[in-house]
Amino acid sequence: VYTKITFFDRYGDILEKKVEKAKDFIFTYPEDSYTYQVSLLSAGFESLTFYHFSIKEIRSV
Fold first, then answer.
1. In whole angstroms, how far apart are CA 25 and each of 11, 47, 48, 54?
2. Does 27 reside within a domain?
3. Looking at the 3D structure of the chain, how many domains does it have?
4. Which of 1, 4, 53, 56 is the 20 to 30 A CA-CA neighbour of 42?
């Protein structure tokens, strides 16, 4: 399964897309983003069961 995050500006135009295969990964929220969409992309799976999904802010020191 791949995770795709698509970032949009306030007019609904795509600013950036990020696709990751890793279970855990770090990304930077683009400064001009207004909203985002998270999609799970099949990599040949017929079904998928997941129990937890989270996006957390990492504060730099």
1. 27, 23, 20, 11
2. yes
3. 1
4. 56
Has residue 23 been placed in a domain? yes
Bridge pairing between strands 14-20 and 35-41: unpaired
Domain that holds residue 18: 2-41
Helix (H, G, I), strand (E, B) or coil at 14: strand
Q: Which pLDDT score is estimated for 1?
A: 85
Q: pLDDT value at position 17? A: 97
pLDDT tens, residue by residue, 3-58: 999 999 999 999 999 999 988 898 999 999 999 999 988 888 788 787 888 888 88
Is the pLDDT reported for residue 61 higher than 70?
no
Report whether 7 contacts 30 (CB < 8 A).
Answer: yes
Closest CA to 37 of 56, 15, 59, 21: 15
